[in-house]
Amino acid sequence: MYLILRKNCLVDSMPKIKNIYAREILNSKGIPTVEATILLDNNMSATGSSPTGTSVGRYEAKDLRDEDQKRFNKNGVRNAVSSVLNVISPALVGIDVTSQHEIDKKMIEVDGTRDKSKLGANAILAVSIASAKAGAMASGAPLFAYLRRYTSLGNTPFKIPTPAFNILNGGKHAGNNLDFQEFLVIPASSIPYDDTLNFASTIYYSLKETLKFKNEVTLIGDEGGFAPSLKTNKEALSLLAETISESSYRINYDVFLGIDAASNSFYEKSEYKIKDQVKSMKSYELIEFYKVLNKDFNLIYLEDPFADDDWEGWQNLTNQLSQDTLIVGDDLICTNIERLETAIQKNAVNGIIIKPNQIGTVIEAIATAEVARHAGFKITASHRSGETNDDFIADFSVAIDADYVKFGAPARGERVAKYNRLLAIQQQLSNSQPQ
């Protein structure tokens, strides 16, 4: 490992938590979330904030909201802030800041619920992230290197994950203009990370020109991707394929297509209803539709193709398509080890999304990634639609050796902050290599 943590971060003089502050801030959608700042007894400090999802799985840890109609349409987080100030802070004062396991375990114990609904996952995660940042600072290590110590990766070389760019938004991310939530362009993993940003930006603005030419709107959705009102989901994929074919990049060689169907949003009474089909479909019929899309577009990535309890659909699709396509569980698993173990037993997926706010602490998110890796799954570290400018997830993705990251389109400050952080890490890794 190119960088050794100072005395392996295991020294008696490591600073301890002196106090924890919190406040209510707005995320990228104008919805309140929690920001926490940890103050150490050497007067160093670090700040973390919790993102918020729009397409929220049923098995996610629960944010604590005020339910006060007079403030932010009942989405205020003053109660979660109070959790930090009056419960979490007193419980953590005096703990060695480099003891992330102890910090997160203490918060889990104090909350005492399975879904962190008492104190709020938004309160707990903000503190967990701030703790990790403070621990890295105290250890004199980059955050990604500091977090690596909590994995079983040992001296595995660091790498920058391949980004999956959501440049065309649908579903709940764009007013339900399309059924599928994300239409992704994914560079070949052999392309250096900094070149993928040029790649994504080029295709992103080419898509904008294509939309203008077709007299489609170029407004953007929650994650920075364009949100045109198209007739079918297949049309959206055709639009991306057309845009790429008119660029200098080669589809299915330099760049691949993927989708996040977020199928919970179009699942009702055991059937799926999408614009592409006149009638609602059973699971086996939706599988045939995905197989047609795969034949036409060679999808490399298919996330949440079925509802979160349609295990039979997941199993059948994985059995039929997983040789060529990554079948990824997001709402199915919700970064929850118990759900992940069920998915492993049922052979329901071969890939997983890791979102720290779905489980509520840094250590639990790392643990879920560990189990997934040992099962042979591909790992995608992901932001949420309601983001802040906190770039923690970029360091986290490198620390857990993620194969892919999803940070949205190469646009909007809260998305670009993550991409730019990966650029900085890439440069740091490059500078550390022997010349």
Examine the coordinates and then state which fold CATH places here, giving the name of the CATH topology of the largest domain.
Answer: TIM Barrel
Give the strand order, joined by hyphens, for the main sheet: 4-14-13-12-11-10-7-6-5
Task: Identify the CATH class of the largest domain.
Answer: Alpha Beta
Instruction: Report the sheet-strand fraction.
Output: 15-25%
Query: Rg to the nearest angstrom?
Result: 21 Å
Please bin the fraction of helical residues: 25-40%
Number of helices: 13
Whole-number mean pLDDT: 93
Total separate domains:
2
Given helix and strand content, the structural type is alpha/beta
User: What is the makeup of the main sheet?
Assistant: 9 strands, mixed
Q: Give the CA-CA distance, first to last residue.
A: 16 Å
Stretches with pLDDT under 50, minimum 5 residues = 1-11
Task: Write the CATH architecture name of the largest domain.
Answer: Alpha-Beta Barrel
Strand tally is 14
Give the name of the CATH superfamily of the largest domain: Enolase-like C-terminal domain
Q: Return the string of H and E elements.
A: EEEHHHHEEEHHEEEHEHEHEHHEHEH
Shape: globular
